[in-house]
Amino acid sequence: xxxxxxxxxxxxxxxxxxxxxxxxxxxxxxxxxxxxxxxxxxxxxxxxxxxxxxxxxxxxxxxxxxxxxxxxxxxxxxxxxxxxxxxxxxxxxxxxxxxxxxxxxxxxxxxxxxxxxxxxxxxxxxxxxxxxxxxxxxxxxxxxxxxxxxxxxxxxxxxxxxxxxxxxxxxxxxxxxxxxxxxxxxxxxxxxxxxxxxxxxxxxxxxxxxxxxxxxxxxxxxxxxxxxxxxxxxxxxxxxxxxxxxxxxxxxxxxxxxxxxxxxxxxxxxxxxxxxxxxxxxxxxxxxxxxxxxxxxxxxxxxxxxxxxxxxxxxxxxxxxxxxxxxxxxxxxxxxxxxxxxxxxxxxxxxxxxxxxxxxxxxxxxxxxxxxxxxxxxxxxxxxxxxxxxxxxxxxxxxxxx
Amino acid sequence: xxxxxxxxxxxxxxxxxxxxxxxxxxxxxxxxxxxxxxxxxxxxxxxxxxxxxxxxxxxxxxxxxxxxxxxxxxxxxxxxxxxxxxxxxxxxxxxxxxxxxxxxxxxxxxxxxxxxxxxxxxxxxxxxxxxxxxxxxxxxxxxxxxxxxxxxxxxxxxxxxxxxxxxxxxxxxxxxxxxxxxxxxxxxxxxxxxxxxxxxxxxxxxxxxxxxxxxxxxxxxxxxxxxxxxxxxxxxxxxxxxxxxxxxxxxxxxxxxxxxxxxxxxxxxxxxxxxxxxxxxxxxxxxxxxxxxxxxxxxxxxxxxxxxxxxxxxxxxxxxxxxxxxxxxxxxxxxxxxxxxxxxxxxxxxxxxxxxxxxxxxxxxxxxxxxxxxxxxxx
Amino acid sequence: xxxxxxxxxxxxxxxxxxxxxxxxxxxxxxxxxxxxxxxxxxxxxxxxxxxxxxxxxxxxxxxxxxxxxxxxxxxxxxxxxxxxxxxxxxxxxxxxxxxxxxxxxxxxxxxxxxxxxxxxxxxxxxxxxxxxxxxxxxxxxxxxxxxxxxxxxxxxxxxxxxxxxxxxxxxxxxxxxxxxxxxxxxxxxxxxxxxxxxxxxxxxxxxxxxxxxxxxxxxxxxxxxxxxxxxxxxxxxxxxxxxxxxxxxxxxxxxxxxxxxxxxxxxxxxxxxxxxxxxxxxxxxxxxxxxxxxxxxxxxxxxxxxxxxxxxxxxxxxxxxxxxxxxxxxxxxxxxxxxxxxxxxxxxxxxxxxxxxxxxxxxxxxxxxxxxxxxxxxxxxxxxxxxxxxxxx
Lengths: 402, 379, 393
Prior knowledge:
heterotrimer, B: D-Maltodextrin-Binding Protein, domain 2, 14 helices, 13 strands, elongated, C: alpha+beta, MetI-like fold, four-stranded antiparallel beta sheet, two-stranded antiparallel sheet
């Protein structure tokens, strides 16, 4: 029996950069052709784009108007209130990340911190004043500090308190943003809120309010009571069959007609109502998918031990269903964030609307590409990071493999 | 389960209720709880004059609304320099129309700055007025019969204008017939859109309209070359042209395509409020006719012997019931003129020779100067 | 024990714990609540509308519109009715939706297959495309595309492409076929040619089934299908002529013009939706188990045949339901046309609601129309879905 020679290295063209090229780009004749065609098209295109971004584009339109892009026409002297409500949000997020420790919350916390650092950097570059940069970076640090504090002393913060904190943060943020008589917080009417502030406000309030409503609709659609099922199904199918702009338009125009004449409801609230009504139907469909994935044996076992329908839903069905649809709901939040741009059509100036208003200034005439590319980049960064987090979440939860 | 489920639920429900109660507060101004029969007149200053004649007590729901709210909601353009324009940097509103908003606020609330300006596109203004969201529309709106019946009641015209056409000088067009086959930008929801069709059809000129809902989009498309011409009120063309990078490359044709009487509009169904708006406008006309301006109004009130002026400024004994009929204080005209000046001052400040627009007053002069401004007598 | 062991079971259940009563009671309460809220809203609505002189009713559809529409596939002028204007908007939306669905599907399949390619460059290019398109809002993409299209050269400097096609910032102009008087006759000849081809195909199939090769017959059929129309064309003297765009003082006159608004909307929608369709297609193809492919190769099918006979039908079952929702999204997203100035259904209805002073009726009409479009599309796709799904044993 001959011993094998010292193993020979593989043939040269199969390893190293050449080997990689052969395998991935030139494996067959049409792959090779595709590669050549694409490279000849792409290289000059990429060069053109890079040259435009670095040399020709007038990025001054962004830096000169950064305040408008971030907070709209909110008076800059009162902007500290926005940073303060962000600080409240940061504290709560940091604490929640420490306590719950799940992938979702930790991603949100990282995202919040990183986002504020980036905004702070952008503010520094745009000459918005060092106070803004300091405030934003401090907020990012607060997220981390809260997280570490909870990790250090886990028992100091009961979960119930955190939940209450989250609930209380909503009225606190509203009061901070809007102002209230009696306190040294001058009123800033909501028609002045704009830019990224309004985008986030609409998206967050939209998803928060539509979530319970959507869960109720999903339960209703699967309910055994025919009246409830018919009403829920009718609502869901109706809302899913019409575009969001028609619902926004209906909310903007008709909502004041539905209310008694002496109640005035401002534009931002109308848009929130429209977005909530719309997204509740989609949340309902997501949750319905989750509910359908639960084995009927669970419900039967729950009934066998004496739980009634309400208790079954609360303790057995919903926890499993909602955990299963978290990735889908993150996707929905991403869509909602993108859909906030549609409120431009009803006259609110969120990020895209402010961009178009900036373009109306005579000195920035012709800077359309710069402004729209900037807005697209902001949305891309936000949505891409969230979708990446959602992918990782899906694998962490093992959705679909159980 | 250690705790009964019900209390847990109840607590959460209560908390949610509290949240909604806070979140649904519709803005900083408390939702006014106006009753059907509103108390007459403004709150603190004047007392209702003793009813010796049959002067009606103030019953305007909207007037009471505005006074309890403490702010006037004025629908404006927001994108028309010279008429209503928001300076992005300072957040200041300036313009001819905004000054009339301030005049109404000065008359009703005593404070010309107690105004919330609501920018509206040409498409949105009718529904905003009809649904009652705004108290008055001062947005370079043309008075037509269909609008009078459907949108609201038109106060006296503050600006007599006409429709014009602006072209780039490169096209070489000088008359409307030269625009055969051209693309013309126009805003939707305006009388100019309708007049354009009528006029061009009457002349037998073929053209393609390009319609936009937004004033900025319209002029943007025009300056980028999407259209060969843009049509609107002549004052608007002049105002927007000052914002172009090369204003001299654009010519406003020497044609007047229609009558465009622009003025404030009050919502339907409230006669007294309409009277308030109407007489604020007349007050500015009358003040200019009588030579009262912001500088001398106080002095005129104190020392003038002219009964017309004394009545106008609330000094004459019978002026009290005139003001009460409108639901305003006796010296509301003093507030108005002191705040924004008379018509001439408003015009010159926003559109006059010292501004980039330098619009000739044309028919916008007093009737004594051969123009169309004619205030009804204040008595 | 003197009492029966199961007495307590047969004792009457008090009504507030009786499940049958509770079920009905809850439904009654829910319906009553909905009706009560509906009633309050309705009465507020009628009161507000009475105050503002707004009305219900669709009578305005017969009144004169008085506004122009920039692009209309059917003849429309300001003297036509609002009803006709509504129809124009609807047709515009349908054109965009149908063309968008077709093009997006094609591009989406390309993107999806590209994502599965072994070529690193193609794979990552497709992945990058999908990520960028899915993570930026459609509205931003539309306005960006429109701004880019407006940067094209002005009409006077239009780029001339071969075949009388002109590209400028006012759109793409290309020749339009115009039917002449003899077109009907030519169509008849075309019909005859196709009929001959089908008939020969049928005969040939029958002959082949009984064992007689008939490729000759098939060739005759195809030859007939080609030669009869061509000969007819020449004989009848070219029944279709071309209306070529000619640059006049301001614009190109003649031919068909794809305006920048239409192009921006269509291409924006197509590119955006194709990213989603690409992911759906990829998911569908990946859902086919590898064992199926191996078995197909083992049986002797070529890769092309495997794709056509094994992968494709199975992938379709997974693809069609999410594809339906993407089609619906495309149709609904066409309502964003208002921002770039294309007169689709929503844009026209906005103008109508402001001009007629009856926003409520118009909104209801528009929502009902979109609902009808959505229902029709999902109905058609569900029928197709059923065909695709039922093949299982």
